[in-house]
Amino acid sequence: MLIITIVASSCNFFTLDSLKAVLALSAVLALSAVLALSAVLFFVGFLFWLAERKHNPEEFSRSPRGIGSGFWFSAVTMTTVGYGDKAPRTAAGKVIALVWMFAAIIIISTFTGMIASSLTEGRLADAIAGPDDLPAATVGSTRHSATDEWLTDAGIVFTGFPDVQSGLDALRQGRIDAFVYDKPLLRYLSRKEVGDELRMLPGTFGRQDYGIALGQGSPLREPVDIALLKEIEGSRWRDEIRKTLGKRN
C-alpha cells in the first residue's frame, strides 16, 4: 500500500498574508502580556506597600501614591533596571523583594517562550497545510514514481529529483516549499534524518495498494498468505513499525 504525504519546510514558505497574520498575532499577544504583567506588578507592588508603608513612608507613603511607588518598585525589580530610587527597609519587604526577583525571572522567561511558540505556530499554520495548498507552492517529488503520476494527474507543477534525499536537501535549502512522497519512507526519514527544520504534515492522500502477484492456481498462494498473516499479526511486526516509523498519525 502506497500512501502519499507531504514534508514541508518550517521556515521558507512565508508570504505577505502570513506576515500580516503574524503581525496581528503579535499585537494580540503583546497586549495580553502587558495586561497580565500589569496585574502581577500591581499585586506585588501592593504587597511592597503593605510591608513598607509604616516603616518607610518616605519612599512608600500611606497615601494611594505609595501604592504607585510599590508598583514602580516591582516593575524596576522585575526588569532588573535597578534605579535605586526606592528600596525596601523592613524584613518583610526584603523577603518579598527577594522572592519577586526569582519569580520575575521565571515569569519573563515563560512569557517569552509562550510568545515565541505562538508566533511559530501561527506562522506554520499559514504555510502549507495540505494538498490544496500545493498549487500555490514550489513542490518537489521523485521522478518516475507513483507520486509523480499523482501530481501530474492533479495538475500540480513540481520539480523532479532523482531520489528522496535530493528532494529533502532542496527543501532544507529553501529551493522548494514542500516535498511529496511515500508516507512510510518520509516518516522513517523524519525520525532519522530530517530534523526540526522540516515537518511532516498529518493526513494522507493518493492511496494506492501494493500486492504480490502469483500465477493462477499457484501452490504458493496459501503458504504466502499464511506467512504474511503470521508476520503482521505478531508483536515483532508491531514493534518494528513503532521502532522504524514511530506512532501513526
Structural domains: how many: 3
Count of beta strands? 6
Euclidean distance between termini CA atoms: 16 Å
Fraction in beta strands: 5-15%
Biggest pleated-sheet summary: 6 strands, mixed
What general form does the structure show? elongated
Rounded radius of gyration (Å): 30 Å
As for the CATH topology of the largest domain, it is: Helix Hairpins
Structural class, judged by helices and strands? alpha/beta
- CATH architectural designation of the largest domain: Orthogonal Bundle
**Can you write the helix and strand succession as a string?**
EHHHEHEHEHEEHH
Question: Uncertain segments of ≥5 residues (pLDDT<50)?
Answer: 9-19
3D structure, described in words:
The chain has helices at residues 16-52, 64-78, 91-125, 146-153, 164-172, 183-194, 221-233, 235-245; strands spanning 2-9, 139-142, 158-161, 178-182, 198-200, 205-208. It is an alpha/beta fold. The chain has 3 domains: 2-12 and 130-214, D-Maltodextrin-Binding Protein, domain 2, CATH 3.40.190; 16-125, Orthogonal Bundle (Helix Hairpins), CATH 1.10.287.70; 215-249, no CATH class.
